[in-house]
Amino acid sequence: MAGIAGTPARYAGPMDSLIAAAARALSAGDAVAALKHVSLRDDPPALALRGIAMAQLGELPRSRELLRQAARGFGTHEARSRARCQVAEAEVALALRELGGAARTLDLAAQALQAHGDIANAQHARLIAVRRSLLLGRLTAAADELARIDVQALPPPLRAVAGLAAGEVALRSLRTADARAALARAREAARQARIPALLAEVDDALAAFERPAARCLQGGAERALRLDEIETLLESGTLVLDACRHGLRAGGSWLPLARRPVLFTLALALAEAGPGDVDRDTLIERAFRLRRPDETHRARLRVEIGRLRALARPLARLEATARGYALRPLAQQGVAVLLPPIAGEHASLQALLADGAAWSTSALALALDASQRTVQRALAELEAAGHARSVGRARAQRWLAPPLAGFTTILLLPSALPLT
Fold it and tell me: Given phi > 0 = left and psi -120 to 50 = alpha, else beta, which region is 318?
């Protein structure tokens, strides 16, 4: 929350030194000391600094209220200060997981700061846009925005944030070497910044390399895989049914099946049995949830198998056998199934909630690209099972879940890109 630490000091007299002292305290992460300097003032610079201090203390709704008051106080005649308030408010919205805000406002604020020579805060605004894109799974947008940032010119705290973002983009694209390098740069920057919370965040990101990220079923045996082992498996040419990202992959080819649940269920059943076959009644029961199939269901199975066969042709063959169907890879490396580290159809939702932030239903729906009603039903099931809880009511209702210890949820987070 250092976006407005450089609030303009055009005011003369003793009050100016209080603003400067509060800004220095905020830059060092000492919100309490900053409040001691400006807590009794209601001029726009003081309101802005109080807003940032409240955000650092976790009082996010109050922080947003103060920042809005400061922005109104600055008005259009102090465009740079007003833009700084807008950037800080956007960061508060990010912390509140309010992801439906207008990205255009943040972009305009960044442009205004750039035009006034406030390069650091302009880059900070772009980093907020990167983090918002990551929460929404828009990896391409995040990578493009990162490319526009001159990371080396940033102060250490923002350089650490940029390294964290670059590391997450690489991790979620399963480029582990790039991710390690980015996080190493982030750790060095966090060490220079001397901000314990930032160092802890980098260390937690680095720990993801050592935790299991998925379960691999291959040849009838199951084992846990780390991220680098998953990357090696995907590069081996093995035909992989990815039940974390819901798709089929072989080498550099990717077939997404997230929006085709019946075809995904059939592919999963066939991949789990590979290289053997699966009888027709079992496929019908799993794909259509029917226990007593008749000829109409077998006809429907033939239609769905035909659709899957056509889609999967570049990656594998679907062969009819005497009792059912079998999935045969075009190469000879075999078939593997990547299963989520946690069971259940709401694994991606749990992965989002496990970040420790309080999410609104609308933000979860936006991140998962699902309807709010679908998310509400899933949250109700998780709450009944004790895996999530809500606080507040109506529009103020937020959802939380305990951290998922022992493994990393990287592969369960929403992503608009196939693994590369």
Answer: beta
Helices (H), 276-332: 280-288, 295-312
Q: How far is CA 401 from CA 58, 351, 389, in A?
A: 18, 9, 6
User: CB–CB of 74/36 below 8 Å?
Assistant: no
Rg of the chain, C-alpha, whole Å: 25
| Secondary structure (3-state) at 239 | strand
Q: Which tokens sit at 287?
A: 């794909």
H helical segments located in 116-240: 119-135, 139-147, 156-172, 176-193, 196-207, 227-235
* CA angle at 393 for the pair 391 and 397, rounded to the nearest 5°: 55
Pick from 263, 274, 279, 262: nearest CA to 328: 274
Contact at 8 Å (CB) between 411 and 215? no
Sketch out the chain's domains with CATH numbers.
14-207 (1.25.40.10), 214-339 (1.10.10.10), 347-403 (1.10.10.10)
- Tokens 């081996």 label which residue? 236
Count of CB atoms situated within 10 Å of the CB of 322: 6
- d(CA 39, CA 53) in angstroms, rounded, equals 10
**What letter does residue 359 receive in the DSSP assignment?**
B
State how far the Cα of 158 lies from the Cα of 136, in Å rounded to an integer. Answer: 21
Q: Do 125 and 87 contact (CB within 8 A), yes or no? A: yes
CB atoms closer than 10 angstroms to residue 276: 13
Count of all residues that appear for the chain in the document: 420
pLDDT tens sequence for the chain (420 residues): 444 333 333 333 345 788 989 888 887 778 899 999 998 899 999 999 999 999 989 899 999 999 999 999 998 889 999 999 999 999 999 988 888 776 788 999 999 999 999 998 999 999 999 999 999 889 999 999 999 899 998 999 999 999 999 999 999 999 999 999 999 999 999 999 888 888 999 999 999 999 999 999 998 889 999 999 999 999 888 999 999 989 999 988 899 998 899 999 999 999 999 888 999 999 999 999 887 888 899 999 999 999 999 999 999 999 999 999 999 998 777 899 999 988 777 888 888 888 888 898 999 999 888 899 999 999 999 999 888 998 888 878 889 887 776 788 888 887 644 444
What is the Cα–Cα distance from 133 to 93, expressed in whole angstroms?
Answer: 13
SS3 191: helix
d(CA 373, CA 110): 35
